[in-house]
Amino acid sequence: MGRPHNLANGTAAEREILMEFYDATNGPQWYDSPGNNWGRIDVDHCFNWTNVECDDEGRVVKIKIKDNNQSGYLPSSLGGLASLDYLYLAYGTIGGGVPHGLFELRNITFLTIIHHEVNGTLPATLNDDGALDKLEALQLLNNKLSGEIPELHLPSVWALYLRENEFSGKIPSLDNVPQLQSLDLNTNKLEGNIPSLNNVPQLTDPSLYDNKLEGSIPSLDNVPSHH
After folding, report:
1. What is d(CA 83, CA 62) in angstroms, rounded to the nearest whole number?
2. Does the pTM of the predicted model rise above 0.90?
3. How far apart are CA 34 and CA 70, in angstroms?
4. For a disulfide at 180, which of 168, 200, 215, 225, Cβ 3.0-4.6 Å?
5. Taken in order 112, 123, 103, 76, is the CA torsion positive or negative?
6. How far is it, in rounded angstroms, from Cα 99 to Cα 165?
7. What separation in angstroms does the CA of 183 have from each of 26, 104, 135, 148, 170?
8. What does the pLDDT look like over 96-129, one tens digit per residue?
9. Whole-angstrom distance between the N-terminal and C-terminal Cα of the chain?
10. How far is CA 54 from CA 5, 27, 35, 83, 186, in A?
11. All domains of the chain, ordered by start, with CATH?
């Protein structure tokens, strides 16, 4: 435990990104500061900074900050954590936009920013270049995001939770989210018809209430796994 990493392998740059995140989210005011060791230059961030995990090469793979008085904004440099697999930010007052670089992380599997105040729009298309092929869960619920829900090309996503935002327009096609099992879009400003569910055979009980949608939820009876 506590072995140092070769800072020439990119870890020094990632440590700097973590510090930018810490400063941007008012880290000194976090409930567990200063005991969480964030910012200390005399310890290895991979082993000693609370709620940070790294792989064997010293690359940051996990950040989890929950109900820790985090505020401020998310710096665009977060998109530079190329090996990040798991980002979980919950119950705070972080505002500003979601850095679009987070949607270009090729190793991310769980991307969760919930119960904050992030706002603005998402990229027009999610994963048109295959960057998010590993993503399994996208959870951005209970924020202030607006605009249309992006066109979705998410082959591994099984959970899509965007409820309690200010999304408008139509629900995009779900044909390119074939593994989708759980969908929660309630309490937005969505309108129009609900798209076909024929190509999401594992989806059960989508939650779409408190919108301005027309018609009923398409029957799941014709979906293969529901026979």
Report:
1. 9
2. yes
3. 14
4. 200
5. negative
6. 17
7. 33, 22, 15, 16, 15
8. 999 999 999 999 999 999 999 999 999 999 998 9
9. 52
10. 10, 20, 20, 9, 35
11. 7-226 (3.80.10.10)
